[in-house]
Amino acid sequence: MQDNATCHTAKSVKVWMDENRIQSLTWPGQSPDFNPIENIWAEIQNCLWERRDSIKDADDVWRETQKFFYNFELSYIEKLYNSLPRRMKQAFESKGNRIN
Q1: Angle at 12 between CA 58 and CA 25, to 5 degrees
Q2: pTM of structure
Q3: How confident is the model over 39-50, as pLDDT tens digits?
Q4: Radius of gyration of the chain, Cα coordinates, nearest whole angstrom
């Protein structure tokens, strides 16, 4: 599945996908992303931002990311999963436009 972002529609990406017989679904650009990992990445990004004064290099970023990821509350992931029907309904009602 591609969201038509320029990094996905570059000629080199299309050639590679053709050569490797990768088929993708047609998907509108800027469509709602229901994948819970996107929310988790955002939380990790916020965590890193809060610790920006103590992060000096890529190794620190990796260490902090792992620390945050492995201590992530399972209840948050369950909450995201359980919210999927509501968010999908909102996206349907908004005709695919942005939702909260």
Answers
A1: 95
A2: 0.58
A3: 888 889 999 999
A4: 18
Q: Which of 38, 37, 28, 22 is nearest to 4 (CA)?
A: 28
pLDDT of residue 96 exceeding 80: no
Cα–Cα separations (whole angstroms), residue 26 to 23, 61, 63, 72: 10, 35, 37, 33
Alpha-helical segments (H) within 1-100: 6-9, 11-19, 36-50, 58-70, 74-93
Q: The tokens 């469509």 sit on which residue?
A: 31
Over residues 68-92, the pLDDT tens digits come to 888 888 898 899 889 889 888 888 8
Task: Answer with the residue of higher pLDDT: 91 or 60.
Answer: 60
Among residues 70, 73, 64, 71, the alpha carbon closest in space to that of 46 is found at 64
Cα–Cα distance for residue pair 54/7, rounded to 1 Å: 32
Q: Are 55 and 46 in contact (CB under 8 A)?
A: no
